[in-house]
């Protein structure tokens, strides 16, 4: 049989215990802010999916991949985000909300506008042209 020895919580032990709980709570409550690397990764993934859209053989494939690209650009709370479509940037968030540079944000908005246009397009050739525009804009071409 083991004997459990109760030790009183001295002020030092209380401080250490409180600090430990604060650190654990802080790790759970406060997420690290999104970084420029997250924004760049989201934009890179969006460009990749725009390329998939441009190379798709049918309108359904173009629309699907443009939705993926748009989801990466705008993030879960952005204009045109579609929760019914894949969000390949769920871990990194959207490129637009994570970008602080105004010039880069304008380019990302331009790409998002082209993606929304391609999603709305019913002509395969025009939808693929919009997908190409998204990819070129994101690559800085």
Mean pLDDT across the residues is 84
Largest sheet: none
Q: Write down the Rg.
A: 23 Å
Number of helices in the DSSP assignment: 5
Q: How many strands appear in the DSSP assignment? A: 0
The arrangement of helices and strands along the chain is HHHHH
Helical content (DSSP H or I, runs of 4+): 55-70%
Task: State the separation between the terminal residues, measured CA to CA.
Answer: 75 Å
Structural classification:
mainly alpha
Pick out the low-confidence regions: 15-33
Indicate the overall shape: globular
- Name the beta content range: under 5%
Give me the secondary-structure topology:
Elements: H1 11-29, H2 36-54, H3 59-74, H4 102-120, H5 124-139
Helix pairs in contact: 2-3, 2-5, 3-4, 3-5, 4-5
How would you describe the overall organization of this protein?
The chain is mostly helical. The chain is built from 5 helices and no strands. Helix 4 packs antiparallel against helix 5. It has helices spanning 11-29, 36-54, 59-74, 102-120, 124-139.
Task: State the gist of this model.
The protein has 141 residues and is mostly helical.
Question: Descriptors for this entry?
Answer:
141 residues, globular, mainly alpha, 63% helix, 0% strand
